[in-house]
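tl;dr need the bound structure. longer version: we got a ligand (flavin-adenine dinucleotide) that a collaborator sent over and nobodys looked at where it sits. i said id run it. heres the input, straight from their email, havent touched it
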Amino acid sequence: MSNLEVAVLGAGIVGLNTVLQIQEHFANAKITLIDDKFNNETLSYGPAGIFRPGTQFGGLPVDFVKQLVEYSYYYYKNLIPLSNSGISQISGYLFSNTAESIVKNRFLENLLPVYRHANTEELHLFNNSWKFGSYFETLLTQCSLFLPWALNRFEEYGGIKKKQRINNFRDLEGKFDVVFNCTGIGSKDLCNDRHVIPIRGQLLKVYAPWIKKFYYNDLDTFVIPLREGLVGLGTCKQYESYNMKIDKHDTASIFERCVDLVPSIANSKIISEWVGLRPYRHIFRLEMENIAKIKIIHNYGHGGYGITTAPGTAHHAVKLFRKYHLNNSKL
Ligand SMILES: Cc1cc2nc3c(=O)[nH]c(=O)nc-3n(C[C@H](O)[C@H](O)[C@H](O)COP(=O)(O)OP(=O)(O)OC[C@H]3O[C@@H](n4cnc5c(N)ncnc54)[C@H](O)[C@@H]3O)c2cc1C
Protein backbone atom coordinates (compact mmCIF):
# COMPACT_ATOMS: atom_id res chain seq x y z
CA MET A 1 0.00 0.00 0.00
CA SER A 2 2.88 2.35 0.69
CA ASN A 3 3.75 2.55 -3.02
CA LEU A 4 0.23 3.28 -4.17
CA GLU A 5 0.24 6.05 -6.79
CA VAL A 6 -3.10 7.78 -7.16
CA ALA A 7 -4.17 10.54 -9.54
CA VAL A 8 -7.31 12.60 -9.15
CA LEU A 9 -8.34 14.61 -12.21
CA GLY A 10 -10.34 17.75 -11.44
CA ALA A 11 -9.98 20.17 -8.54
CA GLY A 12 -13.64 21.15 -8.23
CA ILE A 13 -15.77 20.18 -5.26
CA VAL A 14 -15.93 16.53 -6.38
CA GLY A 15 -12.16 16.16 -6.90
CA LEU A 16 -11.32 17.89 -3.62
CA ASN A 17 -13.70 15.73 -1.63
CA THR A 18 -12.18 12.72 -3.36
CA VAL A 19 -8.58 13.57 -2.42
CA LEU A 20 -9.59 14.10 1.22
CA GLN A 21 -11.39 10.75 1.28
CA ILE A 22 -8.39 8.97 -0.24
CA GLN A 23 -6.07 10.52 2.35
CA GLU A 24 -8.38 9.24 5.07
CA HIS A 25 -8.52 5.67 3.76
CA PHE A 26 -5.07 5.22 2.18
CA ALA A 27 -2.78 7.07 4.54
CA ASN A 28 0.39 6.09 2.70
CA ALA A 29 -0.77 6.69 -0.85
CA LYS A 30 1.00 9.27 -3.00
CA ILE A 31 -1.83 11.41 -4.36
CA THR A 32 -1.52 13.85 -7.24
CA LEU A 33 -4.39 16.25 -7.93
CA ILE A 34 -4.25 17.23 -11.60
CA ASP A 35 -6.10 20.20 -13.11
CA ASP A 36 -5.24 23.26 -15.13
CA LYS A 37 -7.65 25.28 -12.97
CA PHE A 38 -7.81 25.69 -9.21
CA ASN A 39 -10.02 27.53 -6.71
CA ASN A 40 -11.78 30.51 -8.32
CA GLU A 41 -11.09 29.21 -11.85
CA THR A 42 -13.37 26.19 -11.25
CA LEU A 43 -17.14 26.05 -11.65
CA SER A 44 -17.54 24.85 -8.07
CA TYR A 45 -16.18 28.11 -6.61
CA GLY A 46 -19.14 30.22 -7.79
CA PRO A 47 -22.46 28.89 -6.49
CA ALA A 48 -24.01 29.53 -3.10
CA GLY A 49 -24.06 25.79 -2.24
CA ILE A 50 -27.29 25.14 -0.40
CA PHE A 51 -27.60 21.55 0.82
CA ARG A 52 -30.72 20.52 -1.10
CA PRO A 53 -30.58 17.65 -3.61
CA GLY A 54 -33.26 17.54 -6.29
CA THR A 55 -35.71 14.75 -5.60
CA GLN A 56 -34.87 13.10 -8.93
CA PHE A 57 -31.10 13.53 -8.47
CA GLY A 58 -28.91 10.97 -10.12
CA GLY A 59 -31.54 8.75 -11.71
CA LEU A 60 -30.26 5.96 -9.45
CA PRO A 61 -32.15 3.86 -6.85
CA VAL A 62 -33.55 6.12 -4.15
CA ASP A 63 -32.00 4.19 -1.26
CA PHE A 64 -28.54 4.45 -2.80
CA VAL A 65 -28.87 8.19 -3.36
CA LYS A 66 -30.25 8.55 0.17
CA GLN A 67 -27.06 6.98 1.53
CA LEU A 68 -24.90 9.38 -0.49
CA VAL A 69 -26.93 12.38 0.67
CA GLU A 70 -26.86 11.31 4.32
CA TYR A 71 -23.13 10.72 4.21
CA SER A 72 -22.62 14.18 2.70
CA TYR A 73 -24.81 15.88 5.27
CA TYR A 74 -23.00 14.46 8.29
CA TYR A 75 -19.62 14.96 6.66
CA TYR A 76 -20.27 18.67 6.12
CA LYS A 77 -21.97 19.08 9.49
CA ASN A 78 -18.85 17.83 11.26
CA LEU A 79 -16.82 20.52 9.51
CA ILE A 80 -18.90 23.43 10.86
CA PRO A 81 -16.64 24.03 13.90
CA LEU A 82 -13.48 24.17 11.76
CA SER A 83 -12.62 27.74 10.93
CA ASN A 84 -12.57 28.65 7.23
CA SER A 85 -14.19 25.37 6.12
CA GLY A 86 -17.04 27.53 4.76
CA ILE A 87 -19.81 25.33 6.17
CA SER A 88 -22.60 26.87 8.21
CA GLN A 89 -26.18 26.23 9.20
CA ILE A 90 -28.93 28.12 7.45
CA SER A 91 -32.72 28.07 7.50
CA GLY A 92 -35.41 29.28 5.15
CA TYR A 93 -38.34 28.64 2.89
CA LEU A 94 -39.22 26.87 -0.33
CA PHE A 95 -42.50 28.07 -1.89
CA SER A 96 -44.60 26.94 -4.84
CA ASN A 97 -47.88 27.76 -6.50
CA THR A 98 -47.63 24.69 -8.72
CA ALA A 99 -47.73 21.52 -6.64
CA GLU A 100 -47.19 20.35 -3.10
CA SER A 101 -44.67 17.75 -4.31
CA ILE A 102 -42.30 20.61 -5.19
CA VAL A 103 -41.93 21.69 -1.57
CA LYS A 104 -41.41 18.14 -0.32
CA ASN A 105 -38.03 16.41 -0.45
CA ARG A 106 -37.74 12.71 0.30
CA PHE A 107 -33.98 13.00 0.87
CA LEU A 108 -34.26 15.79 3.42
CA GLU A 109 -37.53 15.27 5.29
CA ASN A 110 -36.13 12.73 7.74
CA LEU A 111 -32.55 13.93 7.66
CA LEU A 112 -32.66 17.59 8.61
CA PRO A 113 -33.36 18.67 12.19
CA VAL A 114 -36.34 20.74 10.97
CA TYR A 115 -38.38 20.16 7.81
CA ARG A 116 -42.02 21.20 8.11
CA HIS A 117 -44.93 22.74 6.20
CA ALA A 118 -45.01 26.51 6.12
CA ASN A 119 -47.95 27.82 8.16
CA THR A 120 -50.59 30.22 6.87
CA GLU A 121 -48.75 33.30 8.04
CA GLU A 122 -45.54 32.10 6.34
CA LEU A 123 -47.38 31.39 3.07
CA HIS A 124 -48.28 35.09 3.03
CA LEU A 125 -44.78 36.30 3.79
CA PHE A 126 -43.89 39.65 2.17
CA ASN A 127 -47.48 40.01 0.89
CA ASN A 128 -47.12 36.96 -1.33
CA SER A 129 -49.81 34.34 -1.46
CA TRP A 130 -48.21 30.93 -1.87
CA LYS A 131 -50.28 27.75 -2.12
CA PHE A 132 -47.56 25.46 -0.82
CA GLY A 133 -44.44 25.94 1.25
CA SER A 134 -41.94 24.29 3.53
CA TYR A 135 -39.55 25.61 6.11
CA PHE A 136 -36.27 23.79 6.80
CA GLU A 137 -32.89 24.07 8.47
CA THR A 138 -30.03 22.88 6.29
CA LEU A 139 -26.38 23.60 5.51
CA LEU A 140 -24.63 26.13 3.34
CA THR A 141 -21.26 25.28 1.75
CA GLN A 142 -19.57 28.46 0.60
CA CYS A 143 -17.13 27.04 -1.89
CA SER A 144 -15.10 30.24 -2.05
CA LEU A 145 -13.97 29.19 1.45
CA PHE A 146 -14.34 25.41 1.23
CA LEU A 147 -12.23 24.86 -1.90
CA PRO A 148 -9.11 26.72 -0.62
CA TRP A 149 -9.60 25.10 2.81
CA ALA A 150 -9.77 21.60 1.29
CA LEU A 151 -6.82 22.25 -1.03
CA ASN A 152 -4.67 23.49 1.87
CA ARG A 153 -5.62 20.50 3.96
CA PHE A 154 -4.77 18.14 1.08
CA GLU A 155 -1.34 19.72 0.66
CA GLU A 156 -0.69 19.83 4.42
CA TYR A 157 -1.17 16.05 4.48
CA GLY A 158 1.36 15.54 1.71
CA GLY A 159 -0.86 15.76 -1.38
CA ILE A 160 0.70 17.02 -4.61
CA LYS A 161 -0.97 19.60 -6.85
CA LYS A 162 -0.14 19.52 -10.56
CA LYS A 163 -1.29 22.10 -13.09
CA GLN A 164 -2.02 20.14 -16.24
CA ARG A 165 -4.83 19.39 -18.68
CA ILE A 166 -5.18 15.69 -19.51
CA ASN A 167 -6.45 15.08 -23.02
CA ASN A 168 -6.24 11.29 -22.98
CA PHE A 169 -6.26 8.81 -20.09
CA ARG A 170 -3.53 6.87 -21.91
CA ASP A 171 -1.12 9.73 -21.13
CA LEU A 172 -1.29 8.53 -17.51
CA GLU A 173 -0.52 4.89 -18.30
CA GLY A 174 2.27 3.39 -16.21
CA LYS A 175 2.35 6.42 -13.90
CA PHE A 176 -0.56 5.68 -11.54
CA ASP A 177 -2.22 2.60 -10.02
CA VAL A 178 -5.60 4.28 -10.17
CA VAL A 179 -7.06 7.47 -11.63
CA PHE A 180 -10.18 9.11 -10.19
CA ASN A 181 -11.95 11.06 -12.90
CA CYS A 182 -13.72 14.09 -11.38
CA THR A 183 -13.60 16.37 -14.40
CA GLY A 184 -17.26 17.44 -14.44
CA ILE A 185 -18.21 18.92 -17.82
CA GLY A 186 -14.66 18.08 -19.01
CA SER A 187 -15.71 14.42 -19.15
CA LYS A 188 -17.77 15.19 -22.22
CA ASP A 189 -14.53 15.31 -24.23
CA LEU A 190 -12.21 13.26 -22.03
CA CYS A 191 -14.59 10.26 -22.00
CA ASN A 192 -16.29 11.11 -25.26
CA ASP A 193 -19.50 10.96 -23.24
CA ARG A 194 -22.38 12.48 -25.19
CA HIS A 195 -24.65 12.15 -22.13
CA VAL A 196 -22.83 15.02 -20.41
CA ILE A 197 -24.46 18.35 -21.17
CA PRO A 198 -24.13 21.82 -19.68
CA ILE A 199 -27.03 23.50 -17.93
CA ARG A 200 -26.13 27.16 -17.88
CA GLY A 201 -26.86 29.20 -14.77
CA GLN A 202 -26.33 32.83 -13.86
CA LEU A 203 -26.01 34.34 -10.37
CA LEU A 204 -25.95 37.86 -8.98
CA LYS A 205 -24.50 38.99 -5.69
CA VAL A 206 -26.10 41.96 -3.98
CA TYR A 207 -25.33 43.70 -0.72
CA ALA A 208 -28.34 43.14 1.54
CA PRO A 209 -27.17 42.44 5.10
CA TRP A 210 -30.75 42.42 6.43
CA ILE A 211 -31.48 39.06 4.70
CA LYS A 212 -30.94 36.29 7.25
CA LYS A 213 -32.86 33.35 5.75
CA PHE A 214 -32.95 31.72 2.30
CA TYR A 215 -36.03 31.90 0.07
CA TYR A 216 -36.65 29.64 -2.92
CA ASN A 217 -39.54 29.28 -5.29
CA ASP A 218 -40.28 26.83 -8.04
CA LEU A 219 -39.30 29.19 -10.85
CA ASP A 220 -35.55 28.60 -10.37
CA THR A 221 -35.55 31.66 -8.16
CA PHE A 222 -33.64 32.01 -4.90
CA VAL A 223 -32.29 34.53 -2.43
CA ILE A 224 -29.51 33.15 -0.21
CA PRO A 225 -27.59 35.10 2.45
CA LEU A 226 -23.85 34.50 2.15
CA ARG A 227 -21.17 36.22 4.22
CA GLU A 228 -20.30 39.83 4.94
CA GLY A 229 -23.77 41.03 4.02
CA LEU A 230 -23.68 39.59 0.52
CA VAL A 231 -26.71 37.75 -0.80
CA GLY A 232 -26.78 35.36 -3.77
CA LEU A 233 -29.65 35.76 -6.25
CA GLY A 234 -30.46 33.17 -8.88
CA THR A 235 -30.93 31.76 -11.37
CA CYS A 236 -31.75 30.19 -14.72
CA LYS A 237 -31.39 26.70 -16.16
CA GLN A 238 -30.50 26.71 -19.85
CA TYR A 239 -29.89 23.26 -21.30
CA GLU A 240 -27.00 22.82 -23.72
CA SER A 241 -26.01 26.47 -23.57
CA TYR A 242 -22.25 27.06 -23.49
CA ASN A 243 -22.63 30.84 -23.20
CA MET A 244 -20.15 31.96 -20.53
CA LYS A 245 -21.04 35.64 -20.90
CA ILE A 246 -23.28 37.54 -18.51
CA ASP A 247 -26.62 37.97 -20.25
CA LYS A 248 -28.33 41.24 -19.38
CA HIS A 249 -31.77 39.71 -19.99
CA ASP A 250 -31.00 36.96 -17.47
CA THR A 251 -29.76 39.59 -15.04
CA ALA A 252 -33.01 41.53 -15.36
CA SER A 253 -35.16 38.41 -15.06
CA ILE A 254 -33.30 37.11 -11.98
CA PHE A 255 -33.44 40.46 -10.23
CA GLU A 256 -37.14 40.91 -10.99
CA ARG A 257 -38.06 37.39 -9.84
CA CYS A 258 -36.05 37.81 -6.64
CA VAL A 259 -37.76 41.13 -5.90
CA ASP A 260 -41.14 39.40 -6.35
CA LEU A 261 -40.00 36.74 -3.87
CA VAL A 262 -38.39 39.12 -1.35
CA PRO A 263 -39.40 42.73 -2.14
CA SER A 264 -36.72 44.39 0.04
CA ILE A 265 -34.11 43.16 -2.47
CA ALA A 266 -35.27 46.02 -4.71
CA ASN A 267 -33.20 48.34 -2.50
CA SER A 268 -29.97 46.39 -2.90
CA LYS A 269 -27.04 47.04 -5.19
CA ILE A 270 -25.63 44.41 -7.58
CA ILE A 271 -22.01 43.81 -6.55
CA SER A 272 -21.04 41.05 -8.97
CA GLU A 273 -22.38 38.60 -11.53
CA TRP A 274 -21.30 35.11 -12.44
CA VAL A 275 -22.06 32.40 -15.00
CA GLY A 276 -21.46 28.65 -14.65
CA LEU A 277 -22.27 25.48 -16.57
CA ARG A 278 -23.73 22.71 -14.41
CA PRO A 279 -22.21 19.36 -15.49
CA TYR A 280 -25.44 17.45 -16.05
CA ARG A 281 -25.79 13.77 -16.87
CA HIS A 282 -29.20 12.04 -16.64
CA ILE A 283 -27.51 9.41 -14.46
CA PHE A 284 -24.34 10.70 -12.86
CA ARG A 285 -21.39 8.39 -13.46
CA LEU A 286 -19.94 6.59 -10.48
CA GLU A 287 -18.22 3.42 -11.65
CA MET A 288 -14.93 1.73 -12.38
CA GLU A 289 -13.59 1.21 -15.89
CA ASN A 290 -10.37 -0.19 -17.37
CA ILE A 291 -8.87 1.81 -20.20
CA ALA A 292 -5.80 0.05 -21.59
CA LYS A 293 -3.85 -0.83 -18.43
CA ILE A 294 -5.32 2.00 -16.37
CA LYS A 295 -7.94 1.60 -13.68
CA ILE A 296 -10.27 4.60 -13.83
CA ILE A 297 -12.95 5.45 -11.30
CA HIS A 298 -15.42 7.89 -12.79
CA ASN A 299 -17.24 10.36 -10.57
CA TYR A 300 -18.90 13.07 -12.66
CA GLY A 301 -22.19 14.47 -13.94
CA HIS A 302 -23.62 15.91 -10.70
CA GLY A 303 -25.62 18.64 -12.48
CA GLY A 304 -27.07 21.19 -10.07
CA TYR A 305 -26.34 19.16 -6.95
CA GLY A 306 -22.60 18.54 -6.91
CA ILE A 307 -21.87 20.62 -3.83
CA THR A 308 -24.56 18.81 -1.87
CA THR A 309 -23.58 15.32 -2.91
CA ALA A 310 -19.79 15.48 -3.45
CA PRO A 311 -18.70 13.98 -0.08
CA GLY A 312 -21.08 11.03 -0.54
CA THR A 313 -20.11 10.29 -4.13
CA ALA A 314 -16.41 10.68 -3.29
CA HIS A 315 -16.82 8.28 -0.38
CA HIS A 316 -18.48 5.73 -2.66
CA ALA A 317 -15.81 6.13 -5.34
CA VAL A 318 -13.09 5.44 -2.77
CA LYS A 319 -15.11 2.48 -1.48
CA LEU A 320 -15.14 1.02 -5.02
CA PHE A 321 -11.39 1.28 -5.14
CA ARG A 322 -10.91 -0.17 -1.63
CA LYS A 323 -12.94 -3.21 -2.66
CA TYR A 324 -10.83 -3.68 -5.76
CA HIS A 325 -7.66 -3.08 -3.76
CA LEU A 326 -8.52 -5.75 -1.19
CA ASN A 327 -8.92 -8.29 -4.00
CA ASN A 328 -5.60 -7.45 -5.63
CA SER A 329 -2.44 -8.29 -3.80
CA LYS A 330 -0.17 -6.10 -5.93
CA LEU A 331 -1.78 -2.88 -4.75
C1 LIG B 1 -25.99 28.77 -10.85
C2 LIG B 1 -25.60 27.51 -10.15
C3 LIG B 1 -26.07 27.27 -8.86
C4 LIG B 1 -25.72 26.07 -8.20
N1 LIG B 1 -26.17 25.87 -6.94
C5 LIG B 1 -25.88 24.71 -6.31
C6 LIG B 1 -26.36 24.46 -4.99
O1 LIG B 1 -27.00 25.32 -4.36
N2 LIG B 1 -26.08 23.26 -4.42
C7 LIG B 1 -25.37 22.30 -5.08
O2 LIG B 1 -25.17 21.21 -4.53
N3 LIG B 1 -24.86 22.53 -6.32
C8 LIG B 1 -25.13 23.69 -6.96
N4 LIG B 1 -24.67 23.90 -8.23
C9 LIG B 1 -24.01 22.80 -8.93
C10 LIG B 1 -22.53 22.66 -8.59
O3 LIG B 1 -21.88 23.89 -8.81
C11 LIG B 1 -21.90 21.56 -9.46
O4 LIG B 1 -22.66 20.38 -9.40
C12 LIG B 1 -20.50 21.24 -8.96
O5 LIG B 1 -19.73 22.42 -8.82
C13 LIG B 1 -19.80 20.27 -9.91
O6 LIG B 1 -18.54 20.01 -9.35
P1 LIG B 1 -17.41 19.23 -10.17
O7 LIG B 1 -16.26 19.09 -9.24
O8 LIG B 1 -18.01 18.02 -10.78
O9 LIG B 1 -17.09 20.21 -11.38
P2 LIG B 1 -16.06 21.43 -11.53
O10 LIG B 1 -16.13 22.38 -10.41
O11 LIG B 1 -16.27 21.97 -12.91
O12 LIG B 1 -14.64 20.72 -11.45
C14 LIG B 1 -14.15 19.93 -12.50
C15 LIG B 1 -12.71 20.29 -12.70
O13 LIG B 1 -12.16 19.39 -13.68
C16 LIG B 1 -11.23 20.10 -14.46
N5 LIG B 1 -11.06 19.39 -15.73
C17 LIG B 1 -11.99 19.21 -16.70
N6 LIG B 1 -11.45 18.50 -17.70
C18 LIG B 1 -10.16 18.25 -17.38
C19 LIG B 1 -9.08 17.57 -18.02
N7 LIG B 1 -9.25 17.02 -19.22
N8 LIG B 1 -7.87 17.51 -17.38
C20 LIG B 1 -7.70 18.07 -16.14
N9 LIG B 1 -8.69 18.72 -15.50
C21 LIG B 1 -9.90 18.81 -16.11
C22 LIG B 1 -11.86 21.48 -14.64
O14 LIG B 1 -10.85 22.44 -14.95
C23 LIG B 1 -12.50 21.69 -13.27
O15 LIG B 1 -11.64 22.45 -12.42
C24 LIG B 1 -24.94 25.10 -8.88
C25 LIG B 1 -24.44 25.37 -10.16
C26 LIG B 1 -24.76 26.56 -10.78
C27 LIG B 1 -24.22 26.83 -12.17
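gonna send this back to them w/ a short note. The chain has a mean pLDDT of 95.
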